[in-house]
Amino acid sequence: MGWFSRWRKGKRQGADVARGGFNVFGGRRYLNNASYFLPKDNGEINRLDFQHYLLRYALQGNFAAPIGQPSSILDVGCGTGRWAMEMARTYPEANVIGLDLLPPPSEEQLNQLPEHDRRPENYLYMQGNALDGLPFPDRTFDFVHQRLLVAGIPVARWPAEVRDLVRVTRPGGWIELVEAIPASGGPAMNQLREWLVGVGLPRGVDIRTTHQIGQYLEAAGAREIAYRELNVQLGKAGGRVGQMMETNYFSLHDGIRGVAIAQGLTTPEQFDATLQQAKAEIATGRYVWPYYLAYGQRPTS
Ligand SMILES: C[S@@+](CC[C@H](N)C(=O)[O-])C[C@H]1O[C@@H](n2cnc3c(N)ncnc32)[C@H](O)[C@@H]1O
Question: Which of 91, 93, 85 is nearest to 113 (CA)?
Answer without folding.
Answer: 85
